[in-house]
Design goal:
Oligomer: single chain
Helix content: 25-40%
Strand content: 15-25%
Order of helices and strands: HEHEEHE
Low-confidence stretches: 4-18
Distance between the termini: 58 Å
Strand order of the largest sheet: 2-3-1-4
Number of helices: 3
Largest sheet: 4 strands, antiparallel
C-alpha cells in the first residue's frame, strides 16, 4: 500500500499545474450595454467559457477585460460568448 501512495505522489508531481501555460489577457469592446445589469450578463457569459480565469466588465468604457488559459480558450470563444448573450464584441484596438 505504501508503494501505491508513493507512486501516486510521483505521478502527481509529474502532472503538476506548474507546467500549464500562463494566462493571457485580452480586452473586448462590447456593444449594447446600456444599463447596470448588462455587465453582469456579459461577465457571466464570459465566465462560462472553459479556461476563463476572470472577467471584469466596465460599463462606462464598454469593455471587458478577460484573463484566460490560451490552451483552453481563445479570443474567438470569448467574442462568441458575449455575442450569444446579446452583446456583440470585438478585440479592443
Amino acid at each position: 500500500m505504501r508503494r501505491l501512495h508513493a507512486l501516486a505522489s510521483v505521478l502527481a508531481l509529474t502532472v503538476s499545474p506548474a507546467f500549464a501555460a500562463a494566462t493571457q489577457t485580452v480586452v473586448l469592446d462590447v456593444q449594447n450595454m446600456t444599463c447596470e445589469l448588462c455587465p453582469i450578463t456579459v461577465k457571466k457569459s464570459l465566465e462560462q467559457v472553459p479556461g476563463v480565469a476572470s472577467a471584469k466588465v466596465d460599463l462606462d468604457k464598454r469593455t471587458a477585460t478577460v484573463q484566460f488559459d490560451p490552451d483552453r480558450a481563445g479570443p474567438a470563444a470569448l467574442v462568441k460568448a458575449t455575442t450569444n448573450a446579446g452583446f456583440p464584441s470585438a478585440l479592443h484596438k
